[in-house]
UniProtKB/TrEMBL annotation:
One of its GO terms (biological process) is tRNA N1-guanine methylation. SUPFAM superfamilies: alpha/beta knot. Keywords: Cytoplasm, Methyltransferase, S-adenosyl-L-methionine, Transferase, tRNA processing. S-adenosyl-L-methionine binds at G110, I130, G131, D132, Y133, V134, L135. This is tRNA (guanine-N(1)-)-methyltransferase. The keyword Hydrolase does not apply. Its EC number is 2.1.1.228. Belongs to the RNA methyltransferase TrmD family. It catalyses: guanosine(37) in tRNA + S-adenosyl-L-methionine = N(1)-methylguanosine(37) in tRNA + S-adenosyl-L-homocysteine + H(+). One of its GO terms (cellular component) is cytosol.
Length: 241
């Protein structure tokens, strides 16, 4: 996969090159990451990329021409152009899985009051928000999207770091996890996890996943269909009550 980031602040993304799993994935050529500085495409003698909003109002808007030229500098017929924006669809694991299947993703990182809407309407395939709040710029949302995609790419996580039991992957939040010591300040690890009985452990985890999801994110239960393995394990638990 190739990821191109269109930004006014390419230096912010140096973090990704040194950060453990993502940095290693880059080093091992699991994906290619390029940053494109939108300002390099400004034809203004002062390299300006923003201007006042038509109709008035506070703040500045990113002009369409440099963004258009920046997109065209890397776009091919395989490209999927994403604009990170609080007005976009809320990012979730399903969207991440879809993005991880693309050959080429272009991530447009906005700034100031956002980008001229003619770019969004005509040259962006998808608008994605990372949450119902407004940040100062699209750099952090872009990094969130990259991190979430890259860990799903083949060979990025080792086999013992599988994401299939993680929160959201099968529509439920992850069950509670524990590690050594068995007794931490008088708080013990649930006995069942020490039993070695894999089937009982699996059932314990599913019941706990359901409990945590119902307590913290009931919307996930309403909006997702359980996968076949989880449903048959739950049916089995009910049968044995
Ligand atoms: C200050 S925001 C612009 C907000 C815009 N005026 C609005 O009210 O929707 C500047 C940039 O930050 C990014 N941004 C801010 N919040 C975001 C969010 N929740 N998700 C994704 N991108 C966000 C976008 O790229 C946006 O263009």
């Amino acid at each position: 996969m190739i990821i191109d980031i269109l930004t006014l602040f390419p230096e912010v993304f140096s973090y990704l090159y040194s950060y453990s799993i993502i940095g290693k994935a880059l080093e091992n050529n699991k994906f290619v990451l390029n940053t494109v500085n939108i300002r390099d495409f400004s034809k203004d003698k002062h390299k300006r990329v923003d201007d006042y909003p038509y109709g008035g109002g506070p703040g500045m808007i990113l002009k369409p021409e440099p963004i258009y030229d920046a997109i065209m500098s890397c776009k091919t017929e395989k490209s999927h152009v994403v604009y990170l924006s609080p007005k976009g669809k809320l990012l979730n694991q399903e969207i991440v899985k879809e993005l991880a299947r693309k050959e080429h993703v272009i991530l447009l990182s906005g700034h100031y009051e956002g980008v001229d809407n003619r770019i969004v309407e005509n040259y962006v395939d998808e608008e994605i928000s990372i949450g119902d709040y407004v940040l100062t710029g699209g750099e952090i949302p872009t990094m969130v999207v990259i991190d979430s995609i890259v860990r799903l790419l083949p060979g990025v996580l080792s086999s013992d770091e599988s994401f299939e039991n993680e929160s959201f992957y099968q529509g439920l939040l992850e069950y509670p996890q524990y590690t050594r010591p068995e007794n931490f300040r008088g708080k013990r690890v649930p006995k069942i996890l020490l039993s070695g009985d894999h089937m009982r452990i699996k059932k314990w985890r599913i019941i706990n996943s359901l409990y945590i999801t119902l307590s913290n994110r009931p919307d996930l239960i309403c909006n997702n269909k359980l996968d076949d393995t989880t449903s048959s394990l739950i049916k089995d638990i009910i049968k044995n009550i």
